[in-house]
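Running this now, will post back.
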Amino acid sequence: MTQQVGERLLTEFGVVQPTSKSDGSLVTQSDQWADQFLRQAIAKAFPDHGVLSEEAEHIFPSNNWCWIIDPIDGTTNFARGVPIWGISLGLLYQGVPVFGCVHIPSLQQTFHGFWAAPDQKDGAFCNQVPIHTRTDAPASNQFFSLCARSLSVLQNPFPCKIRMLGSASYNLLTVAHGITIGAVEATPKIWDIAGVWPIVQAAGGTWVALGTEPIFPLVVGQNYSQIPYPTLAVSQAQWIEQFVPLVQSIGQPQTEP
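Update: finished.
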């Protein structure tokens, strides 16, 4: 399903003209087509499952099983010709992700992972090959990935080289794939993270919610269109104490001076 969507999107990559949403983010006709295609495909294959998507359905349904769709994560990259963008699907059971799939068409990479319990660490894959997080320590020759809205952490001495990729899902997947030691996203929405949440943890990584409330389980009837989920992912749990003090301000409410 994601492969089929990706093949069409590659023909529109860097060509379609974006428009701005009310929050200033970009959207294209490609996003809207992919969202509709995926919703219809899921409805046909899993008629008893609910759907929450970036472009159409924002209220979490009462179904035990629910898919969360981000038809193009990294729309600005997609529209401007930067080849880091993907199609993200997360499958939730009673509000908690248990499966994720993210397809990155331009890189010919498809990630998927299963997460049912903390002791299941071997269920993450890229192109069917098992992937694992890094085990080495943070250092000046290791990578850490930021989003554009988390640049404030650079005010602190940072122990790793910084990279910025422009796609929340791929940003976090670099941790699962053993590319980076950690990654932080300041304002991701639920469709930015639902697909990668199980993959990162199944690969051996640790997910830290930087907000005041846990991310999952989602709440039936809640509208998730405007709720951000500041997030830190690290390759090993032992590095949480080192990185949380550097990035925890990202998840704190801002006060007026």
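The CA atoms of residues 203 and 241 lie 20 Å apart. More later if anyone needs it.
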